[in-house]
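Database export, one record per block. Field names are fixed; values are copied verbatim from the stored entry.
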Amino acid sequence: MSPLLLLLVGVAALIKSAHAQTDCGLPYTSQDTRVRRQAEPSQTNESAPSTLTVPALYSSCGAVVISDYFLLTAAYCVLKPDKPVNSVRLGDLDLAKEGEANSQPADYDIELIIIHPNFTDDPQTGIRYNDLALLKTKTQIQFNEAVFPFCISRTSPAVNTTVTVSGYGYVNDSHQPTHLQEGELQVMSLDDCVAEYRAKNRYNLLLSAYPDLLQGYGVVCAGHPNRGACNGDEGGPVVRKDESGRQYLEGIISFTADICGPTVLPTISTSVADNYDFITETIKYA
């Protein structure tokens, strides 16, 4: 039975060796990480190879390597009991090609999934507060020129900070690309973020994910008039570059509303800085 793949995008790592952040954030090349799920019988293709490259058979989400054994993603992306995450592929750039230049794909089995203790797992409500999960691999992730560490941010980005989002999500209402996409956004105040959802008649949709709205803690909102994250980018990275060019992971994409293309809404991500202790303690003790 062939696997259904959940795409995890953006390879960022906290450490190159356990519990040290000495070699992070330089250089940066966006990568794809594929998380394998066991397919439902109706979604299998017995004639397909075990390393599927047919985009239609992918359910897309994102994730970021945050250590040599751990990946960080959205809890929303892994809480599907009928499609358990069982392995990841790192270092793949184009879902429609095998052996493309500048990629060094490698597969890693997943040993453990840790959900943020305050995440509300209720598919009926779709609430996205504390939308984080960590995946632990059975074997150590090997870093190379295609897969290497980012830095984990300890402080939230200021308003108007430029950040980069990446993923394989939809670029308009009908097209989902096979090659990794990136775009620069500006961090917004949470008040301006809510106002943008009101202006585009998506305030009720925002309330469904954040019933108490954006409370000034735990989320980062970033937007641009003509681009942003969209369906399929959830779980992927929000990254800031400092003056030296070093890359810092600021957020994990959580909420992308339902509009893609030129009128896309601001991207709401779960703050890495506000969950720094949870992330680092999990890596240390899990």
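Remark 1: The chain is about 10% helix and 30% strand.
Remark 2: The chain has two domains: 4-149+277-285, 151-273.
End of record.
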